[in-house]
Amino acid sequence: MRDSEQQALALMEKMSVGVPFTVYPDEELLRLARAKGEFLSANQTMTVEDMIYEEGEIVCAIQKSSEDPLYLCSVTDLIIPDDHPLVSEIRDYQNERKYRLALAEGKKGRAKRLARKVKKKKGFGNLS
């Protein structure tokens, strides 16, 4: 499932100005870490060290501390703190991406729940 590449690249460019910045792992990242035998806590602060656009999504390189290994994960697997300057733009992107992934995976119930979070854009010229 590919994002609107222009939208993702524009958001990533804005986000990269603030790198490094603090995030928290969401349930999916916690699950993936457990499956690898690693422990992360839901209230564990992590730092985004770098970002790339790969295979249709924004991928973040994050770590707990400078001594710990880097994790690579989608920006959708991160919780962005309320005080981040782009919090609403990032959350809108995350919700839209999760919604599209749920539709692609045939998870209609999840897609319906996520559709409530996806903000409809106002004005003319929003044909996407």
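the 2nd protein, sequnce then structure:
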Amino acid sequence: MSTHTTKPSEISRDWWLVDADGVVLGRLASEVAKRLRGKHKPNYSPNLDVGDHVIVVNAGKVVLTGSKLTAKEMYRHSGYPGGLKTVPYAKLMATRPEQAVEKAVRGMLPSNRLGRAMLKKLKVYPGAEHPHVGQAPKTLDLKEVAAPSNIEQAHTIEEVTHHA
């Protein structure tokens, strides 16, 4: 019996719709990264992009636990000396929550051209609307997998802006 190797002609891609409302950011990102890589499929191959397309809606309602919403910062560098820019997650979640979700998922994908190809299949939207209705996406419920275990430590951007 020989080992089966997946050929590019055997790859079939599904579309998944994920509602991020009330879901912890890191747990959401790990489940989405699994779907993008294709690790849930029996024909998974680490050297091929066999993953599915994933649509994440309600990215603005994602939850960060502990004090991450106020203490955590996103870094980027311009490439010039002294060009380090920092953005607190409270500001990032208020202005561009889709960027926070994309960054979390990007960190869980391979750092090569295969990972960049997988990231192109991720679509993130801050609200409940998305333009991919024609693809008839299947819903992926992450409430039981990625819900916060301690509800007192889970914080959304609405809570922080109301208390300020």
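Residues 114 and 130 are 26 Å apart (CA to CA). Helices lie at 25-37, 68-71, 89-95, 97-106, 113-119, 143-146, 157-163.
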